[in-house]
Amino acid sequence: MNTSKQHWENVYNTKVPEEVSWFQIYPKTSIAFVEQCNLSPDAHIIDIGGGDSHFADALLDKGFRNIYVLDISSNAIEKAKQRLGTRASKVNWIVSDITEFAPQVQFDLWHDRAAFHFLTTEDSIYKYVSIAEGAIKKGGHLILGTFSENGPKKCSGLEIKQYSAASMSAIFEVSFDRVKCITEDHATPFNTIQNFLFCSFNKK
Ligand SMILES: C[S@@+](CC[C@H](N)C(=O)[O-])C[C@H]1O[C@@H](n2cnc3c(N)ncnc32)[C@H](O)[C@@H]1O
Predict the structure, then answer these.
(1) Which pTM does this prediction carry?
(2) Which residues is 180 bridged to in the sheet?
(3) I want to staple 160 with a disulfide (CB 3.0 to 4.6 A). Which of 91, 114, 117, 196 is the partner?
(4) What are the tens digits of pLDDT across the range 96-108?
């Protein structure tokens, strides 16, 4: 098991949802971005590093029928499944390191909140971008949330890479047009603030 997988298996094995800084009862900003994509209920949507997030629940509530959640941690996926109960069978679950993901379908929407920023080497960022480029349909959507340049330098005790609208756009510009970027303060369950950058892109 690589150290990153070990880290995340341990996090989801030892912490309850409200004990992790990224916890949100409802992923308001992500869903606001999804609404701007005007997707049909049959759209293929994947949440990268979805963990135990309520994003899949919110998509199910909105009537989406082709939802995928990918995470490096099988414990995270098990937790999400248990939370969703019978609704879990309506989601496609994938345990994989994103940099080794070999998608079987193409997606209309690729969403990632606070997973991409853990990739800190040029090689792993390059792999992520190549996989996203191949996996997102022409005209499809990419929504990425990372810590901003005013955000923390670490997440879950691990080094992360902060982004600005310009630096994130530069990484994706070969295959994606930027649509919109915003920053937002996320209030953690411990009453601290983390400044996020969210950008959306369209696949050329
Ligand atoms: C900070 S949490 C965010 C969880 C979720 N996206 C949310 O907003 O609540 C980061 C998530 O990314 C997952 N992750 C970290 N590195 C990953 C990788 N290389 N491939 C896939 N998932 C990864 C972790 O297991 C964890 O669930």
Answers:
(1) 0.98
(2) 200
(3) 117
(4) 999 999 999 999 9
